[in-house]
Design a protein that fits this description.
Blueprint: E1 10-15, E2 22-24, H1 27-39, E3 51-55, E4 62-66, E5 71-74, H2 93-100
Antiparallel strand pairs: 1-2, 1-5, 3-4
């Protein structure tokens, strides 16, 4: 089966300020950008002055981004890495036993 232009997947996001990898926008931000564009079809830079914070899925650093930095990326967004808890993190049973001793 051949892929056509309509089969091409893309998503909105920003480039991480630390590692330069694409960070996909959460759906609430995508909806907000779309609504702002529909409200005022003439160019108004007021919505582009908005600032929001996003955490990179690769380097896990959180940085502030402007709406004007949003761009379209080809392909599918990278899956979020699951964080494994180490034995020294909060919630460890060892800490609870020490507090009750």
């Amino acid at each position: 089966m051949m892929m056509t232009q309509t089969d091409k997947q893309s998503y909105l996001g920003v480039r991480c300020l630390s590692c330069r990898q694409p960070i996909p926008l959460p759906s609430i931000l995508v909806d907000g950008v779309s609504a702002a564009e529909q409200e005022d079809s003439s160019f108004s830079y007021a919505p582009y002055n908005r600032v929001f914070s996003l955490r990179c899925r690769l380097c896990e650093r959180e940085k502030p981004y402007r709406a004007s930095e949003i761009m379209e990326f080809d392909g599918a967004p990278m899956a979020r890495r699951s964080r494994l808890r180490s034995s020294g993190e909060r919630g460890s049973g060892r800490l609870a036993r020490s507090a009750n001793a």
